């Protein structure tokens, strides 16, 4: 049959293009003799780190490190030296521009590029000094500020974050030096993700270092670590641009599932398709040159879904690196004719994408505070620090939930493949049992029936063998770290990390007071730690859950336990308006009340805007592509029916299809009209109310629309369907 629908024709051409695509080959790094370079030889070549810059005198580097660690004012001379060294380094690499790179509350990153050139005595020279390095002045009023700033007061500042290395962003025809910065308003309010993250890191550092010192460790510093496992989908660019929903909203708003999807469980860890491997190899190369420690890659559960995990790093650097990773992924994919989908739920009916945030604390001596050791002291330390984290999550579950709220994640949390929207902690059987016996005042007997001896390294052995992988928990202990799995694939890890650090810092500070008291009262360090462990676990035990987080029974039980369950973004964000719940952020100095309000306003407005874009895109597709295709098919059917009637033949099949199509189209049309009317009626509704209407009424309505559209897709011949199908996008590459 000829393509009688020009939209469908585009789709067919796209398919042909994709099938014929060549693999993109790149030249691997090599020396002048043509010998391959090792990764370690080019790792980090696109970052400038004053710690490693030989052009900066040793004494100055030490001074810089100290300021980066402990805060304090950076002397102008010192900044001048760094600026000069960075400029020399960059110019040698052919860099022409620099920018202050920051993370406004849009969820992505922002930059304004300036050329290095300047006039001096009528001549053009390259110039970049301390003032350009240390401070920038973007037009703050154009970034989300949640009504906090009026536009006439448009000044905001970006200031150099000394703790995250500068890096190059490379286009094929030019390079830019990106300087990681924090972004604050004229009055010093945090307008970005990084500022509160840095505050939370400092606060946690102080509390945890004091804790370590009090129990006799010589730590000078404790840092929070993060390893963010990034899940994503890859589809061909030709399909992507034929799907207005993917382009406008990042997810398919309609689409009939395929006969085979993930039920055979054959994609997870399966052989990586060649074209995808070509993409991954180039991506790794770019990331390694940027000093981003990409480590693990594999197929994920759903077709066309993959994962990338880096080696963990200090959490501020890890948060920056994850943002850079997401943007490099997009660029590299484009070179391979692919598009990376970072949305939490690009396709319905198959798994969505998360970002597992692995989190731990370690000190400057290399001790992981969440690692059980081989002697009673380290084991008591481990049990109490774990208890502190459990208490922190229990106490601040609501705000942790709010920190991962977002329109995309709503499709994932609580669906039967991702962690539930109830925040609970998985400890694994062994650890949970140890805590239970501590509460009961009994001795813990591990499975080998020998009594647990904290002095014999049994604890460490228990966890090194502990391969128990509960994938249904939003917050799981996995041997020597916690894994916050409820974070969405597209989200910045900065905000959830901020909340987690602040929550742990608050409980750690209380623990410090308690320790001090107990030790003063004559208890040994181990006994004092035991008191602390018992106190926090007995308080927080309700949040511990080792069972199946996907089950309905758990939701019921969680409710009985009094654990909060905020089912969607609108409900979860309300938490940010409850000062009783957010007070710990103010108390720890991580966010002021005003800064919290600003986040509430920005996030809830963003939810509404995203949903509205989805609804309008859906309606456009229905009116301009889907219904017209149905009308075309009806025309073809009626011609056949008429012709057959003329020559005296029955058309029972055609009539049946016609009737079914008519009924699907009528339903689709009427639901779409309802959606449009209801949507238009919200135009003047205040934004917090609007969110409620969107989540409660319009979302289910839009899902009904999608359902009728899918019915139509099922009735229309392949050559008339205007949109790339799930089959095309997920299986052709
Ligand atoms: P998986 O969960 O897929 O089995 P791992 O748990 O070994 O894999 O590692 C996943 C991520 O956790 C990686 O990014 C890794 O670097 C990170 N990770 C490992 N140890 C720690 C730690 N102590 N603190 C924070 N992240 C860690
Ligand atoms: Mg993991």
Helix-strand layout with pairing:
Layout lengths: L5 H14 L19 H4 L4 E2 L9 H13 L5 H17 L2 E8 L7 E6 L1 E4 L2 E4 L3 H5 E2 L19 E5 L5 E6 L2 E12 L8 H21 L7 E15 H4 L3 H6 L24 H16 L4 E6 L5 E6 L2 E2 H21 L2 E4 L13 E9 L12 H20 L1 H7 L21 E2 L2 H12 L17 H7 L10 E3 L4 E3 L9 H27 L4 H16 L11 H10 L7 H6 L4 H9 L5 H54 L5 H30 L5 H29 L10 H6 L2
Parallel strand pairs: 2-9, 16-17
Antiparallel strand pairs: 1-8, 2-3, 4-5, 6-7, 7-9, 8-9, 10-12, 10-13, 10-14, 10-15, 11-12, 15-18, 17-18
Helix pairs in contact: 6-15, 9-10, 11-15, 11-16, 15-16, 20-21, 20-22, 21-22
The protein binds adenosine-5'-diphosphate (ADP) and magnesium ion.
The site of adenosine-5'-diphosphate has 14 residues, from β10, β12 and β15.
């Amino acid at each position: 049959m000829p393509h009688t629908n020009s939209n469908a024709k585009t789709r067919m051409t796209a398919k042909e293009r994709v099938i014929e695509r060549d693999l993109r080959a790149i030249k691997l790094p090599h020396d002048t003799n043509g010998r391959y370079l090792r990764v370690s030889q080019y790792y980090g070549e696109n970052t400038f780190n004053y710690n490693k810059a030989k052009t900066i005198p040793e004494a100055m580097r030490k001074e810089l490190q100290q300021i980066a660690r402990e805060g304090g004012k950076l002397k102008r001379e010192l900044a001048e030296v760094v600026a000069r060294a960075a400029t020399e380094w960059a110019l040698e690499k052919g860099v022409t521009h620099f920018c202050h790179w920051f993370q406004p509350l849009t969820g992505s990153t922002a930059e304004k590029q300036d050329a290095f050139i300047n006039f001096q005595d009528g001549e053009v020279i390259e110039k970049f000094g301390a003032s350009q390095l240390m401070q920038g002045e973007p037009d703050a009023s154009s970034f989300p500020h949640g009504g906090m700033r009026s536009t006439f007061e448009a000044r905001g500042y970006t200031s150099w974050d000394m703790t995250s290395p500068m890096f190059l962003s490379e286009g094929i025809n030019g390079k830019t030096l990106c300087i990681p910065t924090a972004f604050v308003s004229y009055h010093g309010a945090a307008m970005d993700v990084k500022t509160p993250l840095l505050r939370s890191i400092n606060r946690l550092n102080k509390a945890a270092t004091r804790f370590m010192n009090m129990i006799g460790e010589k730590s000078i510093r404790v840092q929070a670590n993060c390893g963010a496992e990034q899940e994503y989908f890859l589809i061909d660019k030709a399909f992507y641009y034929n799907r207005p929903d993917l382009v406008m909203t990042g997810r398919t708003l309609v689409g009939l599932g395929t006969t085979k999807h993930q039920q055979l469980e054959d994609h997870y860890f399966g052989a990586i398709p060649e074209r995808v491997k070509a993409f991954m190899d180039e991506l790794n190369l770019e990331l390694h040159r940027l000093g981003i420690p990409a480590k693990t890659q594999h197929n994920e559960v759903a077709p066309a879904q993959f994962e990338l995990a880096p080696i963990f790093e200090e959490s501020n650097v890890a948060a920056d690196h994850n943002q850079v990773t997401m943007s490099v992924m997009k660029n590299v994919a484009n070179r391979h004719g692919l598009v990376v989908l970072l949305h939490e739920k690009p396709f319905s009916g198959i798994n969505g994408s998360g970002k597992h945030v692995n989190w731990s604390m370690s000190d400057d001596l290399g001790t992981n505070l969440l690692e059980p050791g081989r002697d009673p002291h380290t084991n008591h330390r481990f049990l109490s620090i774990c208890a502190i984290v459990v208490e922190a999550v229990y106490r601040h579950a609501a705000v942790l939930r709010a920190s991962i709220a977002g329109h995309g994640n709503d499709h994932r949390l609580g669906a039967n493949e991702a962690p539930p929207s109830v925040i609970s902690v998985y400890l694994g059987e062994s650890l949970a049992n140890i805590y239970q016996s501590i509460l009961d005042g009994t001795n813990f007997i591990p499975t080998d029936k020998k009594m647990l001896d904290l002095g014999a390294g049994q604890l460490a052995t228990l966890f090194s063998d502990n391969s128990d992988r509960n994938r249904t928990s939003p917050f799981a202990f996995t041997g020597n770290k916690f894994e916050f799995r409820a974070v969405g694939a597209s989200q910045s890890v900065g905000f959830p990390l901020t909340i987690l650090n602040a929550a742990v810092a608050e409980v750690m500070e209380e623990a410090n007071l308690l320790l001090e008291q107990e030790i003063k009262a004559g208890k040994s360090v181990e006994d004092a730690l035991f008191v602390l462990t018992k106190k926090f676990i007995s308080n927080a035990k309700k949040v511990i859950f080792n069972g199946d987080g996907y089950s309905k029974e758990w939701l019921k039980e969680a409710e009985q336990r009094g654990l909060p369950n905020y089912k969607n973004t609108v409900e979860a964000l309300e938490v940010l308006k409850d000062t009783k719940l957010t007070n710990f952020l103010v108390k720890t100095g991580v966010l002021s009340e005003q800064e919290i309000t600003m986040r509430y306003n920005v996030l809830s407005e963003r939810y509404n805007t995203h949903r509205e874009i989805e609804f309008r895109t859906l309606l456009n597709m229905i009116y301009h592509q889907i219904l017209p295709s149905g009308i075309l098919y009806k025309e073809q059917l009626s011609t056949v029916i008429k012709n057959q009637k003329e020559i005296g033949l029955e058309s029972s099949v055609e009539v049946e299809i016609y009737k079914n199509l008519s009924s699907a189209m009528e339903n689709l049309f009427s639901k779409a009209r309802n959606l449009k009317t209801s949507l238009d009626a919200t135009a003047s509704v205040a934004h917090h109310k609007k969110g409620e209407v969107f989540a409660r009424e319009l979302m289910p309505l839009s899902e009904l629309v999608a359902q009728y559209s899918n019915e139509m897709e099922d009735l229309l011949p392949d050559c008339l369907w205007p949109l790339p199908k799930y089959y095309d996008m997920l299986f052709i590459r």
